């Protein structure tokens, strides 16, 4: 956790709205909102637009609360990593105590309000997601095991299940498949990032796979997880959330993803120069499109179903 100076002091400039908003990790929140919305709209039960809007809003608040709690606990390692040093807490614009208070307050607010807006199952899943990300991943797994991303990836995979539960009040094969899609996508996505940001994790003492097992082993892991991901992603197209659009998109994306993973696996570790990590950065960029387009295809399939068969 952060040292006393991070906990009690802010720098000379007062925190503004942008700093508190950044505390909620808006980029991560946007992924939470999108996948939760897709889960809600893909469900076979219609939801009133106001209930849907309120539910997605409270899911977003819960995701932001998780981000604030993560920044509170990780302020010490964020301070030494180039990628995270400018975040509100390590930079001193927001104190760690403020981040903790905001995270806890928003967590309680989001869970209670989602319960009131939808149902207990959705609220319970949101509460578990916040706990899993803040406690299981951030406080335990991240600094303890190189499997941190593998197990911790579950936190980012729950939002579509929460959205589905908002509409249906339960869990089904389709919502589990959406969870599994995000869960299996997370390791190759973050390991690709770790390959060209490895020095940051080494300085911070985070046992990322690249630090504990080396780049060669990480490249093999990326290939293995990508091979396991492909049939799962394509297979979802043969369920109620799939269809011809999804199957076409998924087949193309998984072909490209597998090709990218093979290129990473085959890459020569001795190559030096400015383009040393071009392959990894290209794969990381593709991974962002991979998830967005898969869920976009699920959304397109839901939109084309007869009125009343989905959440539209």
UniProtKB/TrEMBL annotation:
Protein's membrane topology: Multi-pass membrane protein
Residue intervals passing through the bilayer: 28-45, 51-73, 94-116, 122-141, 148-171, 177-197, 218-238, 244-262, 283-304
Top-level taxonomic group: Bacteria
GO MF: protoheme IX farnesyltransferase activity
Sorted UniProt keywords: Cell membrane, Heme biosynthesis, Membrane, Transferase, Transmembrane, Transmembrane helix
EC number: 2.5.1.141
Subcellular compartments: Cell membrane
Annotated signal peptide: none
GO cellular component: plasma membrane
Record's catalysed reaction(s): heme b + (2E,6E)-farnesyl diphosphate + H2O = Fe(II)-heme o + diphosphate
Pathways per UniProt: Porphyrin-containing compound metabolism; heme O biosynthesis; heme O from protoheme: step 1/1
Family annotation (InterPro entries): Protohaem_IX_farnesylTrfase, UbiA_prenyltransferase, UbiA_prenylTrfase_CS, UbiA_sf
Biological processes annotated in GO: heme O biosynthetic process
Matches recorded under Gene3D superfamilies: UbiA prenyltransferase
Pfam families in UniProt: UbiA
PROSITE patterns recorded: UBIA
Family (UniProt): Belongs to the UbiA prenyltransferase family. Protoheme IX farnesyltransferase subfamily.
Subunit structure: Interacts with CtaA.
Additional information: Carbon 2 of the heme B porphyrin ring is defined according to the Fischer nomenclature.
Function: Converts heme B (protoheme IX) to heme O by substitution of the vinyl group on carbon 2 of heme B porphyrin ring with a hydroxyethyl farnesyl side group.
Protein name: Protoheme IX farnesyltransferase
Source organism (scientific name): Thalassovita taeanensis
């Amino acid at each position: 956790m952060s040292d006393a100076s991070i906990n009690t002091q802010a720098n000379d400039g007062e925190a503004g709205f942008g700093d508190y908003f950044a505390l909620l990790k808006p980029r991560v929140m946007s992924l939470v909102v999108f996948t939760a919305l897709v889960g809600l709209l893909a469900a076979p039960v219609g939801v009133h637009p106001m209930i849907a809007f309120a539910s997605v809003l409270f899911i977003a608040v819960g995701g932001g609360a998780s981000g604030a709690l993560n920044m509170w606990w990780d302020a010490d390692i964020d301070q030494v990593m180039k990628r995270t040093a400018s975040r509100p807490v390590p930079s001193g614009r927001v104190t760690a105590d403020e981040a903790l208070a905001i995270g806890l307050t928003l967590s309680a607010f989001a869970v209670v309000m989602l319960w009131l807006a939808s149902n207990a199952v959705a609220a319970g899943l949101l509460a578990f997601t916040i706990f899993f990300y803040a406690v299981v991943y951030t406080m335990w797994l991240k600094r303890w095991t190189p499997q941190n991303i593998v197990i911790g990836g579950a936190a980012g995979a729950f939002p579509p299940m929460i959205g589905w539960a908002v509409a249906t009040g339960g869990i089904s094969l389709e919502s589990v498949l959406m969870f599994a899609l995000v869960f299996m996508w997370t390791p190759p996505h973050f390991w690709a990032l770790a390959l060209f940001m490895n020095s940051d994790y080494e300085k911070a003492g985070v046992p990322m796979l690249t630090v504990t097992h080396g780049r060669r082993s990480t490249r093999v892991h990326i290939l293995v997880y990508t091979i396991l991901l492909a049939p799962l992603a394509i297979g979802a197209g043969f369920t109620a959330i799939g269809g011809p659009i999804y199957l076409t998109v998924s087949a193309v994306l998984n072909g490209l993803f597998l090709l990218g993973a093979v290129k990473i696996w085959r890459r020569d570790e001795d190559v030096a120069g400015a383009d040393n990590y071009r392959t990894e950065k290209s794969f990381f960029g593709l991974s962002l499109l991979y998830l967005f387009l898969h869920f976009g295809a699920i959304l397109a399939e839901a939109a084309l179903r007869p009125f009343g068969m989905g959440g539209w």
